[in-house]
Specification:
Elements: E1 4-8, H1 13-24, E2 28-33, E3 50-53, H2 59-69, E4 73-76, H3 83-88, H4 90-115, E5 120-126, H5 149-166, E6 171-176, E7 178-180, H6 189-201, E8 209-210, E9 216-217, E10 219-221, H7 222-234, E11 239-242, E12 248-249, H8 250-260, E13 269-270, H9 288-294, H10 302-319
Length: about 325
């Protein structure tokens, strides 16, 4: 039986990839986009998805949408997604990343009380809830110790989802570590690397430069990570760390991007930008629960993802076409 999924923030990287995955399985997808913004930049990838303007801070609007759509699952991917932006706009970050989640859960509680059942709720939680976590690999039982406004808001939402689950709701947190694809916003470091590598290939800049080339993190393929959302729909509601368990340095990934474009592999230069506040590096992960319970595990090597992103960014610069569905042909997912 085809099912209906409601994806908030469907026009972001993860929303697009999840919507395409669910559509490929024959399911119906309704996705929210911010009102008043016009056509989302990633709209070319959302063929067959019903787009609905909604700010998730609008509790009544969300309630009306749930009543109309009657989804089998709600995947909450809408968020202020940048740690850096959260320092500049802490109140907005709290409202979107925490308070709105509590309101959505309240709406689903009301649905359950009226009808006896409610959609399952799957929250895009974040590794930022753990902060530096220097004591060892983090898992679902690691103490929450966020170190920035983004992490604090995500931690609040994480706890709200856990409380809802303790009340009998089908509510799941997917604690996402870093992940990327050709659709990643170029403000984020991995897409910045591949874009700069493409510029080097075209002679538009001499080298790739980064704020801190030594940064090491657990990054994976976004196409892998969205499979966890699909698995969670039918899985046991719980908290699940979604990560690769492998650390890679920005210097290493710069080499992958340059090599993919046939360029000499040279270390990235230092951009001279000041260090970010509470920038977290070197946090390791353990995703055993997701493997054992959801049957999820990462499959796509990060090196292949970075290489594909570099080739797509070169195509973007050469063609002047920023987004085209054919670009996902370069994504190993």
């Amino acid at each position: 039986m085809n099912r209906t999924h409601l994806i908030t923030g469907v026009a972001g990287q993860d929303g697009v990839l999840l919507a395409r995955l669910l559509r490929s399985r024959g399911d119906h997808v309704v996705g929210t986009v911010l009102p008043g913004r016009g056509q989302p930049p990633l709209a070319p990838y959302l063929d067959g998805v019903d787009l609905v303007p909604l700010d998730i801070r609008d509790r009544d609007g969300f309630a009306s949408l749930v009543e109309r759509v009657r989804p089998h699952a709600v995947h909450n991917l809408a968020a202020v997604s940048s740690v850096g932006d959260s320092w500049a706009e802490p109140e907005l970050t709290e409202a979107v990343n925490h308070t709105a989640v509590c309101d959505m859960l309240d709406v689903l509680r009301d649905v359950r009380e009226r009808t006896g059942q409610a959609p399952c709720f799957i929250q895009a939680s974040s590794a930022e809830i753990f902060g530096p976590a220097e004591s060892g690999p983090v898992d679902e039982d690691t103490e929450l110790a966020p170190a920035n406004p983004y992490g604090e808001a995500k931690a609040g939402a994480h706890l709200a989802v856990a409380r809802a689950r303790s009340e009998g709701m089908a509510a799941t947190n997917l604690v996402l570590f870093g992940h990327t694809s050709p659709l990643h916003d170029p403000r984020f470091v991995l897409r910045s690397i591949t874009h700069q590598a493409a510029e080097v290939a075209l002679g538009r800049r001499p080298e790739v430069t980064l704020r801190d080339p030594s940064t090491r993190r657990d990054w994976g393929a976004a196409a892998d990570f969205v499979r966890a959302f699909a698995a969670a729909v039918d899985g046991t509601p719980d908290d699940y760390v979604i990560a690769t368990g492998e650390l890679h340095a920005l210097t290493e990934m710069t080499g992958w991007a340059l090599a993919a474009l046939g360029l000499s592999v040279t270390p990235p230069g230092n951009s001279g930008e000041p260090p970010r506040q509470t920038d977290v590096s070197g946090v390791t992960s353990c995703a055993v629960r997701a493997t054992e319970v959801l049957g999820w595990q990462p499959k796509i090597p990060l090196a292949e993802v970075i290489a594909g992103m570099a080739r797509v960014d070169l195509r973007r610069l050469e063609s002047g076409v920023e987004e085209d569905p054919s670009y996902l042909d370069e994504d190993p997912g």
